[in-house]
Write a structure and sequence with these properties.
The complex is a heterodimer. By secondary structure, chain A is mostly helical. Chain A has one domain. Chain A is built from five helices and one strand. The relative contact order of chain A is 0.16. Chain B is α+β, with helices and mostly antiparallel strands. Chain B has one domain: Orthogonal Bundle (Arc Repressor Mutant, subunit A). In chain B, about 55% of the residues lie in helices and about 15% in strands. A three-stranded antiparallel beta sheet of chain B has the order 1-3-2. In chain B, strand 2 and strand 3 form a beta hairpin. The longest helix of chain B is centred in the last third of the chain and has 23 residues. The two termini of chain B are about 30 Å apart. The chains are: A mainly alpha, B alpha+beta. Chains A and B meet through helix 1, helix 3 and strand 1 of A and helix 2, strand 1, helix 3 and helix 5 of B.
Chain lengths: ~160, ~110
């Protein structure tokens, strides 16, 4: 069947964008990336045990710089920075679900730690739990993201290697 | 929604570049070259046109062999691109609503 020229142009644009995500998804993430994010978040939360607001503020700034720097390093290596709002809709939904779900989990751990525990190192333990959940959650999300992108690319006839 | 085709973006090579940049918050020259299959000189020429129209911004990082040139779609460029995509969709909708053969959705001639 003949396709309208506009449809062909739009389909080609979508195909280009999908190829970009599929190519990027095929690239391995540096081994240190998720552990660093986990360690940074665990360290920030662990400062609550010291009860020094200044130390916590300092940890947030240093942690922010570390996370920002590592994100930049990964983007620099990949050659592009993905625009989350331009992700295919099924993947954007999955990402939103992961972010909301993980945020609720973090809040639940913090609430339990603050009101339900009197351990001397309770925020250090909570930080470790949150760091581990961040690591595992990000790893799991990435595995699902890659599988979904691969499936979308295969359906579109794109060879992702 | 009313939108017009943007003749600067409509050229196939620039449309390809803008499609890629629309999916990113910035991309490096070599990455765009590899993804589009354009030669470095051709890509450079097309990026100059887009940059002069203020559709993309340019940022150079590093010095010497490790230097890189990053491009990012500007707000003006994103609005123009979204308007262009909408115009294409309007053409499709118009052709389909009119019950005409879809080949009558004729695009204007495309300058390279």
């Amino acid at each position: 069947m003949d396709e309208s020229p506009s449809k062909v142009v739009l389909a080609e644009m979508e195909r280009r964008q999908l190829t970009l995500y599929a190519t990027a998804a095929a690239e391995p993430t540096p081994w240190w990336y998720f552990p660093l994010l986990a360690a940074t978040s665990a360290s920030i939360i662990a400062t609550f045990d010291v009860r020094s607001p200044l130390l916590t503020v300092l940890a947030v700034f240093v942690g922010g710089a570390v996370v920002g720097g590592s994100v930049k390093a990964v983007e620099h290596r990949a050659g592009f920075s993905a625009r989350l709002s331009a992700l295919p809709i099924p993947i954007r939904r999955q990402l939103n679900g992961y972010v909301i779900g993980h945020s609720l989990l973090v809040l639940a751990i913090l609430a339990f730690t603050a009101f339900g525990s009197d351990h001397d190192r309770r925020f250090t333990i909570a930080g470790l739990a949150i760091g581990a959940s961040l690591w595992l959650g990000a790893w799991g999300f990435q595995a699902r993201y890659r599988a979904q992108i691969r499936q979308l690319a295969e359906e579109a006839g794109i060879d992702v290697g | 929604m009313s939108a017009d085709l943007d003749h600067l973006i409509h050229a196939p090579k620039r449309l390809t570049i803008m499609s890629l940049l629309a999916a990113t918050d910035g991309a490096e020259f070599a990455f765009i070259r590899d993804q589009t299959g354009l030669t470095a000189s051709d890509l450079s020429k097309q990026m100059s046109v887009l940059s002069e129209a203020d559709y993309v911004s340019v940022r150079k990082t590093g010095r010497g062999p490790g230097s890189a040139t990053w491009y990012r779609m500007t707000r003006k460029g994103r609005a123009a691109f979204e308007g262009h995509v909408q115009a294409l969709r309007n053409l499709i909708d118009g052709a389909e609503a009119g019950g005409r053969h879809v080949q009558t959705d004729a695009l204007p001639a495309t300058p390279l």
